[in-house]
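Quick review question:
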């Protein structure tokens, strides 16, 4: 077991509470019924990131005042969603630092710091996207491709299991998902030619319960979508955004990453299942129930590692259990989550590579969009129509809110020899210098996949979205502002300059001592807002 360094400060604060809080499997199923808590990455298993709280409204949101700011004192930017349990925030940060923080004051209770090797292989910064929780344990994936369990009261490690060999390019940044007695986590590293997978572990022992490979072997279903030989062994399919769970179907849903190499398609002819896909897995066994591939044979690095948002909608007069998905390839999809069949799909940003999604569920391709050594211009760019930033769904307005990116790029592809532990992309991208890029918060009707309203930002944004039952939408622009909008119209009601843009993160909200707090991570700071206290 690799050496660990853990710093504990003021642990008496939690000890004085009479022991650590206990979070049960039923608590996770109940989601946001207890408004003092935020127990999963999306607030509840559906991934809607919609709070039932109503103290902050369209009429008073402009009175929000910063209550405290927690500074990490470390390099790197937050990409986390804090877990909130009984007045304590549990937060992960850059380089697998983690903290317990007093939710009233912003003061540190304890700190955990992992001792990481010097030779990590990371494509996209040393970030972490958050904890999962069950019982008195917190679970975190690590940059050196481990899963650790920590004691909630002290931050002390309880178990540490290896997912894969980091020296081959494997890493883990995703916030785990706890379902019943298992903690589910995915692996990253597609830019290094890894073979992606999703693992489930026993929450008490750390013993692996099942593994699902996002790239099938030659004799497995989907294996023939890869060339004959060993291309599948370096086929990518990373998992770095947390999935969602339907308890009635006992199914977990995960979006998968790009195939490898990213751009040079001749190295991997075929559809390249199950990359750039949505996979529905049995939560107990990891068996594949169905899949839908958004971008067969992806050559633009359009990971489908976005949040699959679950809802029950009435469509064409019939009740439907759906999963809603704003994809990096520029299309928005409403999919039947029982069968995996597309119900409706339309572009939500400018797309030049495909005209539409056909009746068979496959994109109808337009010519001239396969990268080569000379380069080809395609919209959207590498970053996609959206990316890892969380969307939100408001069941009252029946609107899906997403941070959209309007960008294009020139994509290049070339042959590259695979070497273990070395980046394996087979190409690159560039943006025209005179190109006008912009971002937007867009509200989409999932029944029609049509945009209802938008609020444009002058630059692209990587901020997620939070909605509340009082008709508010909280989002962020690319210039460091957190903003509040009226959910039905998109009217901007409030903004606050954070000093650094939100990246991958979205706001969370909780009740404490009768006050509703809005919690916003940005840069290396965590800021809590609330209405002024009544005198």
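Suggested answer, residue by residue:
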């Amino acid at each position: 077991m690799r050496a660990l360094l853990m710093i504990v400060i003021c642990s008496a604060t939690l000890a004085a509470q009479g022991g650590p809080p206990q979070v049960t499997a039923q608590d996770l199923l109940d989601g946001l019924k207890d408004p003092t808590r935020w127990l999963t990455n999306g607030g509840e298993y559906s991934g809607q990131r919609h709070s039932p709280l109503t103290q902050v409204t369209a009429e008073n949101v402009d009175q929000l005042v910063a209550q405290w700011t927690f500074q990490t004192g470390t390099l790197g930017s937050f990409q986390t969603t804090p877990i909130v349990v009984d007045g304590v925030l549990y937060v992960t940060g850059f380089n697998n630092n983690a903290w317990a923080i007093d939710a009233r004051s912003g003061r540190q209770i304890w700190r955990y710091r992992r001792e990481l090797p010097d030779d990590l292989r990371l494509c996209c910064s040393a970030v972490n996207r958050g904890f999962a929780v069950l019982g008195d344990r917190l679970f975190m994936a690590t940059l050196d491709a481990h899963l650790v369990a920590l004691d909630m009261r002290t931050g002390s490690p309880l178990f540490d299991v290896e997912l894969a060999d980091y020296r081959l390019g494997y890493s883990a940044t995703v916030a785990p998902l706890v379902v019943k007695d298992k903690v589910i986590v995915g692996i990253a590293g597609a830019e290094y030619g890894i073979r992606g997978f999703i693992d489930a572990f026993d929450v008490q022992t750390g013993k692996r319960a099942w593994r699902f490979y996002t790239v099938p072997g030659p004799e497995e279903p989907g294996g023939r979508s890869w060339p004959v030989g060993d291309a599948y062994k370096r086929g990518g399919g990373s998992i770095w955004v947390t999935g969602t769970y339907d308890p009635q179907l006992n199914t977990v849903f995960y979006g998968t990453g790009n195939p490898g190499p990213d751009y040079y398609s001749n190295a991997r002819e075929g559809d390249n299942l199950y990359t750039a896909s949505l996979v529905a897995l049995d939560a107990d066994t990891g068996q594949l129930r169905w899949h839908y591939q958004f971008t067969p044979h992806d050559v633009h690095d359009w990971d489908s590692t976005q949040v699959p948002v679950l809802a029950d909608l009435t469509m064409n007069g019939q009740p439907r259990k759906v999963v809603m998905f704003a994809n990096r390839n520029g299309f928005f999809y409403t999919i039947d989550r029982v069968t995996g069949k597309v119900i409706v799909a339309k572009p939500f940003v400018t797309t030049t590579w495909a005209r539409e999604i056909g009746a068979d569920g496959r994109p109808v391709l337009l010519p001239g969009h396969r990268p080569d050594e000379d380069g080809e211009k395609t919209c959207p760019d590498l970053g996609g129509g959206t990316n890892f930033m969380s969307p939100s769904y408001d069941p009252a307005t029946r609107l899906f809110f997403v941070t959209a990116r309007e960008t294009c790029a020139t994509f290049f592809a070339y042959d590259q020899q695979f070497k273990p532990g070395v980046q394996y992309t087979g190409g690159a991208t560039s943006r025209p210098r005179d190109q006008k890029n912009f971002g937007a918060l867009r509200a989409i009707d999932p029944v029609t996949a049509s945009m209802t309203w938008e609020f444009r930002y002058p630059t692209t944004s990587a901020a997620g979205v939070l909605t509340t039952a009082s008709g508010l939408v909280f989002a962020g622009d690319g210039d460091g502002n957190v903003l509040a909008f009226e959910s039905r119209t998109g009217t901007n009601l409030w903004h606050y300059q954070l000093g650094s843009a939100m990246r991958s993160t979205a706001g969370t909200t909780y009740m404490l001592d009768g006050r509703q707090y809005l919690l916003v991570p940005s840069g290396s700071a965590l800021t809590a807002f609330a209405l002024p206290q009544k005198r």
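Why it works: Confidence is low (pLDDT under 50) at residues 1-13. Helices lie at 12-15, 25-30.
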